[in-house]
């Protein structure tokens, strides 16, 4: 969906225990209308709408992987998102204290990069509307993201060094991590259907894929038909492209079908808990062990991130101790306390 491009446009990668990626445009703002507030950080609010937006982004990515979280996992996810939004707000406030800011021209340059993902300004404006975001709000979020990243780069990333011996030690002590499983690169067309749907409805939905397969046999392009018929919001606009994924990651019926196929083959209709799929296997890679030379750059980056993470968490613990943080949602009171 074009809306997902807007969400990706306002992602900010920040090391907070793991890489934190947020999808909505405004994760903390002053409320202009009556809206449920789930937390405040030194007077700055985090709204229920913002939290829900983040959850939708995460749940969309889980759906692409064929994963359906339980109710308990949803509660835990919400708690985790609120905690990370609190940390982001603290980092933004610290970046302001450090005098970090960006000019309108700087933000314009970033915004142009986001707009390149759309055919034209009209498509970009439409995606903003679907995401419930104004361009002014998007610009504000871009400025926040840039300030946080600059603060982290200046105060943490630039002060971490990893030795070659540390990299070698990690490789030798974690040999299992470098055994790469069999991978598949596949495309799919999904027609959504629930297991509880009446049989007549399920039959009608399945027939839609039967007709799509006929079009494929007549020479239709899989990616074009996926954009036209697929109901998977995560891959539809990419022509059904799921990228590479390891054996065992997808739901069982889908996984079994894919790894029995040969590159270029299109499957029969596959039924899963999500509905009906047609799958095209693009490429398959055998299981292998990644060599040290191939892995060392990524190991160094990983170890750097680990040290940066630890330093940021220490910094945030101190910042939280000095801040006034109120978590107003009963489900997440245990996460952060007002000092």
- Largest sheet: number of strands, sense, barrel closure: 4 strands, antiparallel
Q: What is the CATH superfamily label of the largest domain?
A: Porin chaperone SurA, peptide-binding domain
* CATH architecture label of the largest domain: Orthogonal Bundle
Structural class: alpha+beta
Cα distance spanning the termini? 42 Å
Number of helices: 11
Rg for CA atoms: 23 Å
Mean pLDDT: 85
Overall 3D form:
globular
Task: Report low-confidence residues grouped into runs of 5 or more.
Answer: 1-33, 330-339
Please report the first level of CATH classification, the CATH class of the largest domain: Mainly Alpha
**Secondary-structure element order, as H and E?**
HEEEEHHHHHHEEHHEHEEEHE
Strand tally, please?
11
Report on this structure.
The chain is an alpha+beta fold and 339 residues long. It folds into 2 domains: 190 residues, Triger factor/SurA peptide-binding fold, CATH 1.10.4030; 105 residues, Chitinase A, domain 3 (Roll), CATH 3.10.50.40. The chain is 51% helix and 15% strand. It has 11 helices and 11 strands. The chain has a 4-stranded antiparallel β-sheet with strand order 7-6-9-8, with helices on both faces. Strands 4-3-11 form a 3-stranded antiparallel β-sheet. Strand 3 and strand 4 form a beta hairpin. The longest helix is centred in the last third of the chain and has 31 residues. The chain is globular. The two termini are 42 Å apart. The N terminus and C terminus are likely disordered.
């Amino acid at each position: 969906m074009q809306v997902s491009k807007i969400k990706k446009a306002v992602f900010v990668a920040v090391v907070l225990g793991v890489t934190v990626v947020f999808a909505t445009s405004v994760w903390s703002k002053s409320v202009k209308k009556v809206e449920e507030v789930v937390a405040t950080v030194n007077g700055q609010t985090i709204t229920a709408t913002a939290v829900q937006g983040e959850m939708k982004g995460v749940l969309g990515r889980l759906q692409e992987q064929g994963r359906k979280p339980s109710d308990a996992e949803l509660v835990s996810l919400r708690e985790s998102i609120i905690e990370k939004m609190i940390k982001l707000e603290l980092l933004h406030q610290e970046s302001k204290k450090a005098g970090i800011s960006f000019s309108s021209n700087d933000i314009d340059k970033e915004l142009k990069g986001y707009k390149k993902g759309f055919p034209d300004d009209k498509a970009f404006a439409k995606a903003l509307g679907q995401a419930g975001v104004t361009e002014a709000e998007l610009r504000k979020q871009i400025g926040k993201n840039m300030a946080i990243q600059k603060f982290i780069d200046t105060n943490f990333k630039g002060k971490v060094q990893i030795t070659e011996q540390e990299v070698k030690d990690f490789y030798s002590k974690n040999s299992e991590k470098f055994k790469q499983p069999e991978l598949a690169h596949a495309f799919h067309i999904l027609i959504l259907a629930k297991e509880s749907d009446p049989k007549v409805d399920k039959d009608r939905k399945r027939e839609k894929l039967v007709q799509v397969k006929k079009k494929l046999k007549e020479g239709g392009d899989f990616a074009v038909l996926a954009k036209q018929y697929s109901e998977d919001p995560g891959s539809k606009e990419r022509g059904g492209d799921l990228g590479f994924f390891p054996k065992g990651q997808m739901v069982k019926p889908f996984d079994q079908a894919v790894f029995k196929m040969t590159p270029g083959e299109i499957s029969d209709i596959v039924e899963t808990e999500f509905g009906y799929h047609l799958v095209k296997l693009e490429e398959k890679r055998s299981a292998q062990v990644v060599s040290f030379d191939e892995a060392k750059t990524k190991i160094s980056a990983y170890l750097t991130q680990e040290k940066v993470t630890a330093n940021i968490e220490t910094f945030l613990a101190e910042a939280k101790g000095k801040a006034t943080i109120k978590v107003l949602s009963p489900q997440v009171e245990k996460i952060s306390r007002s000092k």
